[in-house]
Design goal:
5 helices, about 25% strand, three-stranded antiparallel sheet, alpha+beta, Lipocalin
Length: about 325
């Protein structure tokens, strides 16, 4: 074979054509070799069973003609007609009847809704330096609601008071007990309620309410009993500081410069112990002044409100078992 032929342009064209022909033959051979896989036959769906309809031809109902009564013969006796049937009486709408007394609504006890203000005034003087200071008051005006008297004037109110140091007042909040003191059947009845005392300020001269009317707590006179204790606190604080200044010291040099350090001696030990005792005594006096340095005194006859934080329901009032006949 001549190599110069394949190096010539004509030989190269022939060579390229031969390669393309071989490629086409190879592709056709590969396609002929791949046979498609047949798809499975689709299963036939079951036939839908339709409901059967049955048609029946019925005979039409015909009303029979009324029978014609035959004329009675002379030999036949007349037949007696049966009496007409009586209709039953109509049944009542209810199965039983009740007496008028049972159908009436029971009588409702007097009540007053939430948030009533009951005008009262103290009976005895109140002092906050007594533990569990009792508050005893009298209702000065009747409390009415819906045209019915709920709390009568003259009833007693009882509670316990505590000192409000932040506002210098007697705080009375929590359970209260109202006791009836009236010359009738309600005398001696008791009713437990929840409420708090509000200050009442009304000027009879001007007929106007004060600026602090209705504020929480009872105002009174502030009584101080800490004058002597304040002097003791001043003296103890002064002596504790003086003992520290009377100690013997020496100068030392450190990272922050020169400093004064107490000398280890018997004199300094006595002064340091005395100063510690005086500081503890001053702290004790300070706590006593803060606790018992003053007390509040509310005089008798102080007007106030009892603000009830529940419904006043006389159905909950009861008489003590000892007073029952």
């Amino acid at each position: 074979m001549n190599r110069d032929f394949f190096t010539s342009p004509t030989g190269q064209v022939v060579l390229v054509a031969a390669v393309l022909a071989l490629g086409v033959i190879a592709v056709r051979w590969q396609q002929a070799k791949r046979t498609p896989v047949p798809l499975p036959a689709a299963a036939s769906a079951p036939a839908v069973v339709l409901p059967k309809t049955l048609t029946r031809d019925g005979a039409r109902f015909k009303v029979p003609p009324p029978a014609v009564a035959a004329a009675p013969t002379p030999a036949t006796a007349p037949v007696a007609t049966p009496p007409a049937a009586t209709q039953p009486a109509a049944l009542p709408l209810v199965l039983f009847t009740a007496s008028p007394e049972l159908t009436q609504k029971p009588s409702r006890a007097p009540f007053a809704p939430f948030g009533r203000l009951i005008p009262c005034e103290t009976v005895v003087a109140l002092e906050s330096n007594r533990l569990d200071t009792p508050v005893v008051g009298l209702v000065t005006e009747d409390v009415w609601h819906d045209g019915r008297r709920v709390i009568p004037a003259g009833a007693e109110v009882h509670a316990r008071a505590a000192l409000d140091r932040a506002r210098e007042r007697l705080a009375v909040a929590g359970p209260w007990r109202i006791v009836w003191r009236t010359p009738d059947a309600e005398n001696g009845m008791e009713l437990a309620v929840e409420g708090l005392a509000l200050d009442r300020e009304f000027s009879t001269d001007t007929g106007r309410w004060g600026a602090e009317d209705g504020s929480a707590g009872l105002r009174g006179q502030l009584v101080k009993v800490s004058d002597e204790r304040e002097l003791k606190l001043f003296a103890a604080t002064f002596l504790a500081t003086a003992t520290s200044a009377l100690q013997d010291t020496r100068l030392t040099t450190g990272l922050l410069g020169e400093a004064s350090v107490p000398v280890s001696s018997a004199r300094n030990a006595v002064l340091a112990g005395t100063g510690a005792v005086l500081r503890d005594y001053a702290q004790t006096m300070r706590e006593a002044i803060a606790r018992d340095g003053f007390y509040l005194r509310v005089p008798a006859g102080k007007p106030f409100y009892l603000y009830v934080t529940q419904t006043l329901d006389l159905a909950q009032a009861h008489r003590p078992a000892a007073s029952l006949p």
